[in-house]
Amino acid sequence: MSVSLYRKYRPQNFASVVGQKPAVDVLTNSIAKSRVGHAYLFSGSRGCGKTSVARIFAKALNCLERENFEPCGHCRNCTDITAGESLDVIEIDGASNNGVENIRGLKENVTLAPFSSRYKIYIIDEVHMLSQGAFNALLKTLEEPPEHVIFILATTEPHKVPVTIRSRCQHIPFHSIKPEDIFARLSEVCTLENITSEPEALWEIARQSEGALRDALSLLEQVTAAGDVTLANVESVFGAGSRPAFERWIVNLRESPENAYSSLKAMFDAGALGVRVFEEMFSLVRNLWLVAKWPGIVDNIGASESERKFLQDESKQWKPEKLHSLLHVIMRALTNARSGMRADILLGVFMLYLEGEASREVFTPPPTVIAKIPEFVPAPPPPPPLTVEEDTELKEKLLNIAHEKDFTIYCALFDAKPHTHNGALYLDMEHAYSYETLRIDRTSAELAGMFGDFGKVILRYGASESVCVDFVPENVTIEAPTKKHKTKPETLTAPSEAPAPKQETAATSSVFSSYINALRHLQAKPEIILVKHKEHQDDSDDNTDDSTTEEGDNE
User: C-alpha 105: how far from its chain's center?
Assistant: First the structure.
């Protein structure tokens, strides 16, 4: 059985590690200066070299013939660690050994001395998968291990590792590997394996690996199974949607949009996933937008020579504003794709988005397509508010009326500049909060009824305007309570009857508005207050019963 490429070309010393110079420098300096810690936490995305560097670090610490910081690679300890047969380097899968009993077994073996090496090294992969109990069991051992023990914890999600664990480790972050570094490594592997390859195909594999060299080597091996590493074979493996295909699509979108639709549909028909299609599309349009705004940035976006040439030539044909608008359209389509929308519906919605942008004259297709797009006529902006002086006398009059009827309106009117125009009362508000408070349906109806002497009551804030309407219930009869109460003349104090609320012309006859006004009418009824006076001790019981009955009836 052949060995996979990612296992065959796994780095065996620090010099062969790709794209992780900061992390390697920390580890090599600690070895060279004999300042090795007792616990390390390696964090980073998948396939970026965390476990490989942990093994190299273990070999360098236990190497019998080490020079400076690099392991020799041929001594007994180095060969055993490379083959995974060393008894002093123990690798534990945190995902499958995440229980308390597994950590207890580890703690029992920690105190044992190494068999044939200087250090006993524990490499716990996917450490974030340990249970809370397992972390608690590991905590004390991790804080004060024996002098011959070193822990190396590796994780893709460091935020899931308890802070009590992280604080006891030297945290070394690993970064996603740049596409150009992955491309260089893939070219080297193709040369060593005598694989015929096209540079554009290798660049496409490097992009699809998303910063993971292990994934890139796996994809390379998958493509070689279909033949030579060509762009056509890469597209057949990935389900269409390569970078050259999207370059052709963006040219068609500018010159002949109907061909752009056909090419995009062909990608979906070939099995391309909607999320991947719009992610690649966004990446290309983003690069075009950057180069269109800042031409000198083309050398810093991680592209091949042919891609840089395309970006320089094509960006001259687009305005940055159009590309910026197109990016927003792709973002909306990407959101739909991630929600699981069907491919044909997704494509149709995307074309509708494009047409909508074209109608706003931000993304301009050729004249033949403009004729098919309905003309978009923007709504005229509302008229600006009139600049008038505050009528102090009118404001004082309005405040006096509001003070007697509604305290909320009274407070809000302090923020208003009232004036009249053509028989209507205008209230220009200084702050949005006061405006929004007064334009609520209930408060707006109160305003219209309160200042009914004016033809209209109009609220304004900036360019916003709202007309207050008094809602009056139709066909709703409210009768006074007919139940009689037992009262005593000397203990009953009744206020004078409140005037009936003023009935205004109904502007809306909705049932909901009728009930609201009915409730408001009930709230305006006078209240009856019963006052109990203390009488002779002998009649206290009777008085208590009477007053209780009267109060209960009133309620």
Answer: 42
